[in-house]
Amino acid sequence: MGLLIVGSIGLDTVETPFGKIEDALGGSATYISIASSYFTQSTNLVGVVGEDFGEKNIELFKSRKINLDGLQIIKGGKTFRWGGKYHNDMNNRDTLFTELNVFENFNPIIPERNRKDEFILLGNILPSLQLQVLEQVPNPDFIVCDTMNLWINIAYDDLLKVFSKVDALIINDSEAKMLAKESNLIKCARIIREMGPKYLVIKKGEHGALLFGDDFIFSAPAYPLETVFDPTGAGDTFAGAFTAYLYKTKNINKENLKRAVIYGSVMASFCVEKFSTKAIENLDDLKINKRFNEFLTMSKFEYD
Amino acid sequence: MGLLIVGSIGLDTVETPFGKIEDALGGSATYISIASSYFTQSTNLVGVVGEDFGEKNIELFKSRKINLDGLQIIKGGKTFRWGGKYHNDMNNRDTLFTELNVFENFNPIIPERNRKDEFILLGNILPSLQLQVLEQVPNPDFIVCDTMNLWINIAYDDLLKVFSKVDALIINDSEAKMLAKESNLIKCARIIREMGPKYLVIKKGEHGALLFGDDFIFSAPAYPLETVFDPTGAGDTFAGAFTAYLYKTKNINKENLKRAVIYGSVMASFCVEKFSTKAIENLDDLKINKRFNEFLTMSKFEYD
After folding, report:
1. CATH number (domain holding residue A88)
2. Residues of A with Cβ-Cβ distance to B221 under 8 angstroms
3. Do the domain assignments include residue A271?
4. What is the 3-state secondary structure (H, E, C) of A174-228?
5. A219 and B222: CB-CB below 8 Å?
6. Is the ipTM of this complex over 0.90?
């Protein structure tokens, strides 16, 4: 029973025009599960870290009531590390280093009690690992998948296998164009949905997000931020909130999907306000719903 | 009494990946006034053409009940001509030629009966000509202004004088960034509104439009078009519908401004479906309101 989350967990060194942090909590599954924890207490994390991961980070997960049965802590192992630097416009970043460490031999082993989880969110990891997860959970109700340009380039066939099994795919606009080999996003959506996912979310950063279903398109605004402090993890945070809200509703319909996109946008808009997971560690329903209402106000108009 | 429109009127030669037309009806005031004509029968056009403009084009204006008292037809003169070619992604175009012809010595003379027009829409022309218009109409209720990158570059001081006098400015995102010397559109809006305009619309093409006022931001979606046949005039059409809807309501409030942005987007979405003004020549309230409702459906969500 719950929302199963699989992805990377790491320690990030990030430089932005506003400052620098070293070995701060990061990784796709980290952002996803923290975002999810505001919508359900059945957030089940599967991932791997080394002995150096730090008790403080474990405690953070626990304080958010994230279930860590599926967290492998490798004795003597070192945690996955990533270093990146953002340019002035914050839309582009350079990867400075990637140390896979214990993540190199990561085998996502789903604990017995999580094999009946109804929802799965496959965070951005190697598509073959995403497939391994799906093999262990035979009958989920709803599968959401995130991915990245790297896998489109080097693991396209596995990615197509994943797509054929998932219900919803979340990608950004440049990934959508790369995947569909097409520049018009509306055409992209048609092409990508033919690869499998019934629902597709295309994130457009400062331009908001588009949700595509069988008979509808939903256009969500972006939160009007004057300053993006650190964009790391915003996409993962979006995916976590999107999926966890749907899990909470237990009802995949158009209105819930639209709200899920807004909750994803809300949580991502918080995420970028501080380094690492700092801005999403201490939220509450009041803050989240206040921002949800700001999205509502910003996009609402009526026929006169 | 009415909405005074000043801008260029020309004959366009346009090449897109879908075909080519020669000497087709074009110009900012043309698109603006045709769009306006669906919202008010007090559309008062001021512009200049040559003797070669063509009776068919005059008849089109008349059929749309556009008042042509301010249209100067220069005997023996040649109409302004522009030629452009769009690239495959339709976001960029090359100007192939510009023949100013009678437009070179254009002096916008506002007919006596239009000097009491309550609304003015200054289409995209030389800022000094926009100022000339304002000098002749001493006391309008509401002034909307369009401009382009060329004037930001070569007539910046005059443009600032225009901005200090107008109520609303409509520009696209690249122009906003150029004008504000800033890449974040939210910051851009703050900087540009300090130049004068109380209301600012930033058009973002396939990403919709943003409207900024004193205490609100409105984010409008784009119509999900798979094919943009010819983008020429879309911005002018937006401005025409935006302003004419506000003129029709006689009430500048937040809800009307938001609807005006949607009507602008609706009319622009029609405009790009065919060459020249073809797609906006034969619309009706039913078609316009049907598309307005599609914008509503596309952006509507509710708190659960």
Report:
1. 3.40.1190.20
2. 219, 221, 299
3. yes
4. HHHHHHHCCCCHHHHHHHHHCCCCCEEEEECHHHCEEEECCCCEEEECCCCCCCC
5. yes
6. yes
Q: Residue B58, exposed/middle/buried by CB under 10 A (0-12, 13-18, 19+)?
A: middle
Q: Does B254 touch chain A (CB under 8 A)?
A: no
If you average pLDDT over residues B191-209, what whole number do you get?
Answer: 97
Q: Which tens digit of pLDDT belongs to each residue from A89-132?
A: 777 789 999 999 999 999 999 999 999 999 999 999 999 999 99
Separation between Cα atoms, residue A139 and residue A60, nearest integer Å: 31
Q: CA B261, CA A302: separation in Å to the nearest integer? A: 12
Locus of tokens 């599968």: A143
β-sheet bridge partners, residue A80: A10
pLDDT tens sequence across A142-193? 999 999 989 999 999 999 999 999 999 999 999 999 999 999 999 999 999 9
pTM: 0.95
DSSP assignment of B179-212 equals: HHT-S-HHHHHHHHHTTS-SEEEEE-GGG-EEEE
Site of tokens 């924890």: A37
Cβ-based contacts of B89 with chain A (< 8 Å): 183
Query: Which helix (H) or strand (E) is B93 found in, with range?
Result: strand B93-99
How many domains does chain B fold into?
A: 1
Give the residue numbers spanning the domain of A122: 3-299
Q: How far apart are CA B81 and CA B26, in angstroms?
A: 9
C-beta of residue A163 within 8 angstroms of C-beta of residue A191: no
* pLDDT(B173) > 80: yes
Asked if residue A95 lies in contact with residue A82, where contact means CB atoms within 8 angstroms, the answer is yes
- Give strand ranges (E) for chain A: 3-6, 10-16, 19-26, 43-50, 67-74, 80-86, 93-99, 119-122, 142-146, 168-172, 199-203, 209-212, 217-220
In a domain, A11, yes or no: yes
Position A226 in a domain: yes
Residues in chain B: 304
The length of chain A, given as a count of residues:
304
Strand order, beta sheet including B3-6: B67-74, B43-50, B3-6, B119-122, B142-146, B168-172, B199-203, B209-212, B217-220
> Is residue B31 assigned to a domain?
yes
Residues of B in contact with A298 (CB under 8 A): 216-219
